[in-house]
């Protein structure tokens, strides 16, 4: 398969998933928007071939940032600002997730996908809750500031678990779709190549 063609498909999948993310937020489709494609996009970039990983990582993170800006500006009318507090930590974390998923020493694509989804979901859960504790840190049950200690962190983890669960489920769902589309595209291209010969 041509290197340029293999790069275009992941970029197209990233763009389509981000458009879908924006639309599901714009039209308040909670049952869809709670299963975010962000993890699958990062996993797609991280699992790409080494020569494509850097470029797809930049496309993924830049695309997510543009989508976040559009959601904050258009869907929420800037109510929470253009970017959330600690936004740069989130994007730094996205880079870590891409790197981590690219470093998995697993050859089987489906196993790598499953373990990669679990790995980046755990990274997301632990570090995003750590970021939340340091930047916002509000106990959602009392409205008071969480203490900056292990107790506050454990409360943030418990309260953040539903988001981590949805992040994991969205990562699995969208990753399966991405994987299936790539397999179908490869098979179709092989069939076309054989029919031309």
What does this structure look like?
- The protein is mostly helical.
- It has one domain.
- Helices cover 78% and strands 0% of the residues.
- It is built from seven helices and no strands.
- It has helices at 3-26, 30-33, 38-46, 50-75, 87-102, 109-135, 150-196.
Give a short overview.
The protein is an all-alpha fold.
SSE blueprint and pairings:
Elements (H helix, E strand, L loop, with lengths): L2 H24 L3 H4 L4 H9 L3 H26 L11 H16 L6 H27 L14 H47 L1
Helix pairs in contact: 1-3, 1-4, 3-4, 3-5, 3-7, 4-5, 5-6, 6-7
Keywords, separated by commas or semicolons:
single chain; mainly alpha; 197 residues; 7 helices; 0% strand; 78% helix
Low-confidence runs of at least 5 consecutive residues = none
Shape: globular
The percent of residues in helical segments reads over 70%
Question: Helical region count?
Answer: 7
Give the domain tally: 1
Oligomer description: single chain
Number of strands: 0
Distance, first to last CA: 16 Å
Instruction: Give me the Rg, rounded.
Output: 18 Å
Chain-averaged pLDDT: 91
Secondary structure category: mainly alpha
**Main sheet overview:** none
**What is the element string, with H for helices and E for strands?**
HHHHHHH
Strand content: under 5%
